Amino acid sequence: MEIVFGRLDDSIARFTLSGASEAFANALRRSMIGEVPTLAIEDVRIYDNTSVLFDEMLAHRIGMIPIKTDLSRFVRREACKCEGAGCPHCQVTFTLTVEGPGMVTSGDLVSEDPMTVPVDTNIPLVKLWEDQKLVIEAVAYLNTGTEHAKWQSTIACGYKQYPVIEVTDQCDGCGMCVDECPRNVLEVKGQTVRVVEGKIEACSLCKLCEKACIGTGIGEDSAINIDSDRTKYLFIVESDGSIPAQQIIEEGLRYIRKRSDEIIESLQEISMEGQ
Amino acid sequence: MIPVRCFTCGKVISTVWDEFKERKAAGEDPKEILDSLGLERYCCRRMLLSHKEIIDELYPYQ
């Protein structure tokens, strides 16, 4: 199994995973979406809210704010040594005190931990007028996307099979498929059609080119064939900013390893019982 | 108020609402604005295109 990165920065990673099965590719996708923990505001204590929004709506908006998370410093509430009492290892408290008029933004949230702050400081929460006031205490916990989407650290996270485009000798270079392709993957070169250099990954496997080719009256079989490589997958992982994209991939893979080890352990336990 | 995140993919889109609103009022083509704001997917684009701000109308009824 091999991973080759096409692009890697804090917000987006594009890579090809080769030598893997579809099942593994999907397991990786699912663990990155649902099993990589991140911080999000869960408990909100509202001391004063005279704004035009209801408490619940305000709490929901505050919960959706992505928060920068250093995973090495936090543990989940259930696993913490404080046994649910609340300590700096399992929770971060934010306070927000704003008086109108003006726009309340995520930058107004004051964190007790200078490293753990909202990713964006200009997310609008509510607009306040004269004599309106907000006094809020919010507590962020570590949890995963399977519990609620606010704990999901990925935005767009998915894969597709690697496209394989073959042009047979029958091609006369009429260019009908080139005009039809919505992603501009193909070009006419001399008497035949070929893939534009570096554009193969843009192909969405829509097969409109095959239909266009048959439409020219070339016969029963299309001169261009679109197939996919069942062992090679193109991934896109986009982070919401709470955790760098590379760490999301690492944590996703670590989760798969942890669960696989658990299966081995329980299988061994079962087989020991039988003896 | 504009939703904090895109309903479908979860990208934070509320941060660009003010700029979108101003540039649209200035007569710029929404397609150009969305492209320059980096909103690639149509789920995020519809969040801004179809949004109607009503918080100013709520104010008298607090």
Mean pLDDT of chain A: 93
Cα radius of gyration of chain B in angstroms: 12 Å
* Strand adjacency order, main sheet of chain A: 1-2-12-9
Strand content of chain A: 25-35%
- Give the largest chain-chain interface (CB within 8 Å): A-B, 26 and 20 residues
Q: How does the major sheet of chain B shape up?
A: none
Which descriptor suits the 3D outline of chain B? Answer: flat
Beta strand count of chain A: 12
What's the pLDDT, averaged over the residues of chain B?
Answer: 93
Total of helices of chain B: 4
Kindly estimate the percentage of residues of chain B that lie in beta strands according to DSSP.
Answer: under 5%
As a percent range, the share of helical residues of chain A equals: 10-25%
**Low-pLDDT sequence parts of chain B:** none
Decide which structural class fits the backbone of chain A: alpha+beta
- What best-fitting shape of chain A do the alpha-carbon axes yield? flat
Helix/strand class of chain B: mainly alpha
Report the radius of gyration of chain A as a whole number of Å.
Answer: 26 Å
> Whole-Å distance between the termini of chain B?
15 Å
GO molecular function (chain B): DNA-directed RNA polymerase activity; zinc ion binding
Catalytic activity (chain B): RNA(n) + a ribonucleoside 5'-triphosphate = RNA(n+1) + diphosphate
Subunit structure (chain B): Part of the RNA polymerase complex.
Pfam families (chain B): RNA_pol_N (PF01194)
Detailed description of the structure:
- The complex is a heterodimer of chains A (275) and B (62).
- Chain A is of the alpha+beta class.
- Chain A has helices at 22-34, 55-63, 176-180, 208-215, 245-274; strands at 2-8, 12-18, 38-49, 91-99, 102-105, 110-111, 124-128, 133-143, 154-167, 186-189, 192-195, 224-239.
- In chain A, β1 and β2 form a beta hairpin.
- Chain A starts with a strand and ends with a helix.
- In chain B, 45% of the residues lie in helices and 0% in strands.
- Chain B has helices at residues 17-25, 30-36, 42-49, 55-58.
- The two termini of chain B are 15 Å apart.
- Classes of the chains: A alpha+beta (275), B mainly alpha (62).
- The A-B interface holds A 50-53, 61, 64-66, 119-120, 122-127, 129, 132, 149, 152, 154-156, 238, 240-241 and B 1-5, 9-12, 14-15, 17-18, 41, 55-56, 58-59, 61-62.
